[in-house]
Amino acid sequence: MRQVLSSLSYFSIFFAPFIFPIILWIIAGDVIVRKHASKALMSHLFPFLAAIPLLYFVFISSNHPASLLIYILIFAIIYFGSFVYNIVQGIRVLTEGNWNQRY
Fold this sequence. Notes:
This protein is an all-alpha fold.
């Protein structure tokens, strides 16, 4: 059960990116599940924190279209990297074999 819950916190990028890791982090009694839920939550939040400068460029500093396009490209790379990271971490946690030890 520990593996499934920990990997679902990463895979929740598909169905509930913020809600599921927060709920799991709050109600999980297992330290390892809580650790993975908090890591998944941070990796889900990071692209949205990177979007704050993008909103600045779109609404306030719109007179430089080249810088806006470059930042959109950087944001797309960050978002795609975070998406791939969550998938890889979810698979890694699900296939990891030594879950009986305490961290």
